[in-house]
Amino acid sequence: MNQNIEMDVVARLRHFLATAELPEDGRLPPERELAQSLGVGRAVLRKALATLQAEGVVWRHVGKGTFTGDRPIDTVADINAMVQRTNPLEVMGARIAFEPEVARCAALNATASQIAEIRNCMIKAQQAPTWRQYEQWDNRLHRTIGEASQNSLLLGLLDTLSAVRRAVTWGRLRDTPVRPPPDHHSFVEHEQIVEAIADRDGAAAADAMRRHLRSVESHMRDMR
Amino acid sequence: MNQNIEMDVVARLRHFLATAELPEDGRLPPERELAQSLGVGRAVLRKALATLQAEGVVWRHVGKGTFTGDRPIDTVADINAMVQRTNPLEVMGARIAFEPEVARCAALNATASQIAEIRNCMIKAQQAPTWRQYEQWDNRLHRTIGEASQNSLLLGLLDTLSAVRRAVTWGRLRDTPVRPPPDHHSFVEHEQIVEAIADRDGAAAADAMRRHLRSVESHMRDMR
DNA sequence: GCTAAAACCAATTCACGATTGGTTTGGATA
DNA sequence: TATCCAAACCAATCGTGAATTGGTTTTAGC
């Protein structure tokens, strides 16, 4: 009998969805009301709703409600929303997943002048007299690699990622006269990335970028 | 004498900014407090703050407050701008670069229920009676993989990419009763992706996703 | 003429309660 | 025993209204 009851509820729910006048957003009454109006308990109703959800007929979200039709997709890349949901660890995870592949594309598609520009950023970063300026040139280095991928969409995603990273990153660097030490780990890593791109070696570029970001990540953890 | 007073206030403000312990976000006390603690009226203080704002030392916003340091960047990624600059080929290039790494993260981090959900999407896509519904479940499959990465930032970037893809993709598929053929190339490719994720094999998941997207790309070219 | 003080405006934030899907528990029912 | 119902609780979300804050105007005092 148990199946009969549940099947019955599912059928009645389908009928309800087909006939009832639903508001513009396709929202249907809260579970408590719906259960009462169908004369069943919440548990049974929820089982039936779970069935419909598995079929893709409805979708639900805590605090919002139950809706019919397609789940709306965020059409606006609200960076604020991303910033609030994420954290520095996720940011590094995303960079490690994303930027190596950007570097691979850059290695395959960069123009000669872009490679020169990347080299310039690398050198300027090495010579930076303050940490702030180092950070500036490092940012520009990574973005120029994005430009060199010759894919404006990849570049757009990289910019979005960078915006989130800047917003999430803890305390800003002081403008002190302290400069990165000459044996800063990033220097040799940058060189490996740049050389791989200049050699048009996509796999090596991706590997070098991955090593670089993992190194940044481990130093980030040390600083805590 | 008016100038003397204002210059004095500006100077004292600079001293305050240099010495006072400011909170992490660089916010300084509201105008009313600051005016009182400096022993001047709000109007005079505001003139001095306007001077500092013109110099870029501070920035202000109604309802938020007055802050030192750089004004945070505009936090809305303009999807329309990306759409106008890019094209279907770039979209596929970005997908091929990005989604395999998302699949790799998913393989390492997915929960059991998420793997079940991914399997469900795959099956529903195979059984879809129309191309539109196939597309729906295919989209949901790829997004669920993004959720399974357990990285909200990766998911946000994937959503951005998807939004651009939908906006760029050529004409929509009809809702005809025609359904994907049972030997549709995506079916076996989907299976390979899902199995790799279920096996927690990140490299295999990335490879399978890459093969899948390259296959989609080649079929896209054939259709032209 | 300049300043201080107060009042008001609009954007933003904050706190709190209400709502809602998700989950657990205890008891009733067949 | 197995199922269902009722109730309570949890966490995410939404709505509302008070409080805060920069921006502006008005009024009064020196």
Descriptive report:
Two copies of one chain form a homodimer. Chain A is elongated. In chain A, strands 1-3-2 form a three-stranded antiparallel β-sheet. Chain A is built from ten helices and four strands. Chain A has two domains: 2-68, Arc Repressor Mutant, subunit A; 79-223, Four Helix Bundle (Hemerythrin (Met), subunit A), CATH 1.20.120.530. Chain A has 224 residues and is mainly alpha-helical. In chain A, helix 5 packs antiparallel against helix 8 (152-168), helix 5 (88-109) packs parallel to helix 9 (185-198) and helix 7 runs antiparallel to helix 8. The first copy, chain A, has helices at residues 2-19, 31-38, 42-55, 79-85, 88-109, 112-127, 131-148, 152-168, 185-198, 202-223; strands spanning 27-28, 58-61, 65-68, 77-78. Strand 4 of chain A pairs antiparallel with strand 4 (76-77) of chain B. Chain A binds a DNA duplex (30 and 30 nucleotides) through residues 1-2, 5, 30-32, 35, 40-44, 46, 49, 60-66.
* Biggest pleated sheet of chain A: 3 strands, antiparallel
Strand order of the largest sheet of chain A: 1-3-2
The H/E string of chain A reads HEHHEEEHHHHHHH
Proportion in helices of chain A = 55-70%
Overall mean pLDDT of chain A: 88
Shape of chain A: elongated
What's the gyration radius of chain A in Å?
26 Å
Number of strands of chain A: 4
**Poorly predicted regions of chain A:** none
Strand share of the residues of chain A? Answer: 5-15%
Our count of domains of chain A comes out at 2
Count of helical segments of chain A?
10
